[in-house]
Every structure is written in C-alpha cells, then in structure tokens.
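Continuing the series of single-chain predictions for the mutant panel. This is the parent chain; the variants come on the following pages.
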Amino acid sequence: MTSIPTLLRRSRTLSALLFSAAFPAAAEVDVFSLDLEQLLKTDITVTSVSNKEESLGRAAAAIHVLTAEEIRQSGARSVPDLLRLVPGLYVAQIDGGGWAVSARGFADRYNNKMLVLRDGRSLYSPFFAGTYWDLQDTLIDDIERIEVIRGPGGTIWGANAVNGVINIVTKSAHQTQGGFLQAGGGTFEQSHGALRWGGKAAGGALRVYGQGAAFNNTVDNDGEDRNDARRAYRGGMRFDRSSEDGSVMAQAEIYNHPARNTYRVAELAPGGVTLWQDDFVSRGGHALVDAQRRIGARNRLGLRVYYDRAERTQSYIQPTYDTLDAQTQHTYDGDRHGVVWGAGFRWWQDHSLGSTVGTADQPSHTHRTYSAFLQDEIKIVPRRWSVTAGSKLEWNDFTGTEIQPRLNTALSLNDDHTVWGAVSRAVRTPSQVEDTGAFRYLLVATFPATVFGVIRGDSELKAETLMAYEVGYRGRPDVPPVNQAKRNWDS
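Parent structure:
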C-alpha cells in the first residue's frame, strides 16, 4: 500500500508537471521520450512574427502558441473555443454561430482590427471587415498549432493586423496518414461526424476529408430559443511533397452552411425592439498552392497563390466575392543579418444583391492591392541580442498608399529569459460596406407613419491608424525544482 508521505510527494510532483504544462513544448518533439529537464528546455518554432522560422522564446512580440497536444487535450469542438485558452484574448459567443474574438479591446461580432489566417490565407472579409467565425469549422484534429499575436502585425501581414494576428497552421499530409473516423452528438452540437484518409501519391503525401455537423438553437437570458440553428458541411484535400531542395503544398476545399438567425432591431415605437428572423446559406471554397525553394544553405524563395470564393445569401444583403492573392518572398539568413523581403498582389471583386434593408451604390466592385515589404534582423550578439527594422508599403484603392513600419529588439538574458520591446504602426482600411453601403432600419412601424433610419457609407473615409509601443518579458521556470520533483516521484 502506498504511504501518505509518498502520495504527498507525488502530488507535489503532479503539481510541478501541471505547472510546466503551461509553457509551450516543441511541436515536432516526442515529449514522452524526454526527461523533465529536457521537457522544460524544449522550444517551439513560430513564423507569424517575422514570416520566417524563429524561436518562440526569442520572438519580439506578445505571442502565444497552442500546440497540437494542447489542442487535442482541450476537448474543444471549434476554433473560437480553442482560442479561449490563449492568455489575453477575449472570446465570447454571441449566438449559435457568432463570436466576438479580440485582443486589446474592440470586441465585436465582426472585429475589424484582428487579422485571421489559415496556412497563410486571409480569412478576413473585405466586404464587412471582419471574420465569419461560423465558417471556420476546420477539423480540430488537423490543426498543427495556432499562433496568436496580441498586438500589431502589419509590417509582415499588411492592413487590418492592428490589434492582433491569429494564424491557424494545419498539419501536413505526411502527418495524417491512414484512416480517421469521428462521430458524436450532444445537446447543442446535436450530431457531428468526420472522415479522413491519408496516403501516398505522386512522390508525396495526400489527404482527403469530409465532415458535417448539426447545431441546435441557443437559448437567451429568458430561457427562450433564439431560432439560430445551423448546419455545417465541409470537404477538401491537401497534398504535400518535400525534398532537400524545397517543398510544395496544395490544398482545396468547399463548404456549405445553411443557417438561421434572429436579430433584435431597435424601434422608437412602444416595446422598442422587433425580432427579425433571417434564413440564409453560406457557401464557397478555395484553392491554394505554396512552393518553397532552397538556394544553398542561406537563401530561400517562396511563392503562395490562392483563389477564394464566398457567397452569403442573407436577407438584408447577399454578397458574393472572389479573391485572387499572390505573394512572393525571399529569405536570407546570414551570420549578422537575417533579411526577409517580398511583394504581393491581391484582386477581389464583389457582387451584391440588395434588399429593402441593405443596398450598395452599384451591384459590383473590383479592387486591387499592391504591396512590398522589407525586414532586416541585425544580429548584434548572435542568439542573444538582435534589433529588427522593417516596413510594409501598400497601395489600395480605398485610401491610397499606407506605410506600416516596425522597430523591435530582443535581448536573451540566458536560454530561459528574454526581454523585448517594439514600436510599430498599423492601419485598418475601410470595408466595401463602409465605403458604399446603405442600410435602412425601422424606427417607427405604426401605419401610416412608418419611419426608417438610414446608415450610409462614406467614400471619403481614411484608414484607421495605430501607433503601438510595447515592452515584454518571456521566461521559463528554473529546472532544479522540477528535477527534485522527479526524484521525489522516483522514490
């Protein structure tokens, strides 16, 4: 029989292990093969801060990473639910499919200051300025990690990365070989299922998948159904091939989301609120190709191209928009300088079918954005102290030329402790709705004195700008106490 002192020692050990679990572990390391000292020394590589691989421990940004193991253990069924685990991130569910996700304020259903990416593809809607979180139903088991930056990221990612960047990185097809079947149900998510197969193809790895889910109505504070039930269907594929000279990744996906929502519309009439029910469908898809080429030991060329089509048939306005995006990048990693530079082009076109509620000045608009960026990491003391300066230059046909510079420094006191600081400028450009939209809302519904209010866009809107000054510290606990915990456990 285990003695009480032994149980106490083991409980202290368990507490130490739980404490250590709050710190990220390396995504590519088998943590079960490491002892406790090695476990706390592991680190993870991130790409969201400078668009090149760097150590999380030395990154000059307020960044947090959810690893694949943390994601698996969380039990979360959606990306917004996973984001509840990120310190400093505000996440609130508004209705069955609506979420408010923000960092450093400005929480809203369509947070227009948070840029969300998946494998480098922007999920930010240029039509409404925000992210449709109800459409981000990525298969949780396929997510490799989620990198979250609390603060500006415009120097690398461009406009709208004002208060944060969320980068969802999915697993390569090499990591998802074999079959996968998932099914379940409950009170809110009434039923869900997913099927995935991974195999070898064309000298690389391939996966194909499909999933579906049915969601029940949510309930308001009075215990009444909100009539916001929805369904979600998604299917796609991914192909990966890599060699010593580089890699190629291609993916394609389609989705269909029938849904219902109930909105509260303010009135000046007695009662003050009218309930408005909306049945709509969101459908679309995308195709993406990402190619990386190594040139020697220090240079890498990259090209990413994707096409995205989205349609949302809501009763107040029915937008359909197509996006074509191309980005190229060259990375040089020298002894004293780490240079990243590149250029990009984005074309998108929207077609809007208006209603008695929402209209646009014309049914179709076409927009173009051109960009270029340069960033240089000066390694004053390699692996200890660096200063990084860079800027992104963008031209868009809403506000013209926008400049987003950043200067940061990171000083590693030792392998476990880093202090950093940054000064940066970020911008948010107006959306199509803010530029040309017009929405009518009911003020008085009493016949014959029906009165509507009208909210109109303004084509003279300028970009919102932010100047950010940041100072941070990142550290890991000392290893000796954990080694003592390991000895207590062994005894």
